[in-house]
Structures are given as C-alpha cells and as structure tokens.
Write a structure and sequence with these properties.
Elements lengths: L6 H4 L7 H23 L2 H18 L6 H23 L8 H6 L12 H20 L2 H12 L4 H8 L3 H23 L2
Helix pairs in contact: 2-3, 2-4, 3-4, 6-9, 7-9, 8-9
C-alpha cells in the first residue's frame, strides 16, 4: 500500500475518519522527526515544530501530481518552520556578531568547528543582511558594497565617487546606521 501522506493532497483532512487522520499524522511524524531533531537537538522543540508544521500543512496543502512532489513540498514547509524556530528562539545569537558576518563574508566558516545549527543561523543571518541591503537607498547600498564587498578605502571611494573622504565617511556612517535599523527590525535585538 502507498503512503497515506499522499491522501493530504487529494482530500479534505478534516473530513477524513479520525483513525485515518491519526495514521496520516503518524506517517508525517516519522517522515520529518529525524531531520528536525538533527538540526534542533531538542525533543520538545522538535515535537512543537512537527505539530506546527502539520497544522500549517493541513490548512494549505496543494494538489500534487505524485507522492514525490508532495514530499518535496512537505520538506520545504518543515525546513521553513525550523528556520522560524531558530529566528524566534534566537539560539546562539551572542556567538555570531551581526556586523562581522557582512565584513568577513569571504572568510570560510569551518564546518568542523561549527554545528549545523550555527550554519543554519549564519545562512539565515546572511540572507537577512542581503535583504536589508537591497532595501537601503541606492546611494547607501553602493557605499556599503564599495567599502565591504570591494574593500575600497575611504580615499578610493571618494576618488571613484568624485567627492571628499569626509563626505564618504559621513555617508557611510549614515548607511551603516540605516542598515543596523533595518536589520534590527527583521532580526530582533
């Protein structure tokens, strides 16, 4: 017999019999428990993530052509719920300096020293920083990219923009402050 999970795609979950609902949930639980516990390393948090994911899934399950397509979608939903968990709990935030993530972007992160949890956290933070950068005024975005991506000095930036070093320092300060405000709104304190 095929997977009971595929029934989610074609039927209204709430209209199914309680026994079938239980079997679908148990199969979903078995399907996602291992990857979640591997990332979160906390049984209670894993249980919460599974339950919240399942509720989200039964409320918005798309029509899938086959079981593989449905399982791929389920994995995406669960992965996003794990990311949300890391954002909400702010685990190990004190160990990652938000300014150094952008400045030292080219420095490779040692996978031996960093746990999977830290890697996920760093990826989320980097994505958030990129989003914040894209939301800045174009002038500020250009200054930040010249300073930290291209690693130009104040003098080199001033020459390229045909302005003074003092003006570059002032505008770069304003750009960093705008970036910090935007980042704080998205990421939290």
């Amino acid at each position: 017999m095929g997977s009971k999970l595929f029934l989610l795609s074609g039927a209204n979950y709430h209209a199914l019999s309680p026994q079938l609902q239980k079997e679908i949930y148990e199969e979903f639980y078995q399907f996602v428990y291992s990857p979640i516990i591997y990332m979160v390393k906390d049984h209670a948090a894993t249980e919460d993530i599974i339950q919240n994911s399942f509720i989200k899934i039964i409320d918005s399950v798309p029509r899938a052509e086959n079981e593989a397509q449905l399982k791929s979608w389920l994995k995406v939903v669960v992965r996003n719920m794990v990311y949300n968990y890391f954002r909400k709990t702010k685990k190990n935030r004190n160990e990652i300096d938000s300014e150094s993530v952008y400045i030292n972007e080219s420095a490779p992160m040692s996978t031996e020293a960093a746990s999977l949890e830290k890697e996920v956290e760093l990826k989320l933070m980097t994505e958030t920083i990129s989003q914040c950068l894209n939301e800045l005024r174009p002038e500020y975005k250009a200054l930040i990219e010249l300073r930290w991506k291209r690693e130009l000095s104040y003098r080199e930036i001033a020459t390229e923009l045909e302005t003074t070093e003092e003006r570059v320092k002032y505008k770069l300060y304003r750009a960093r402050e705008a970036m910090k405000r935007t980042f704080s709104k998205k990421w939290g304190e």
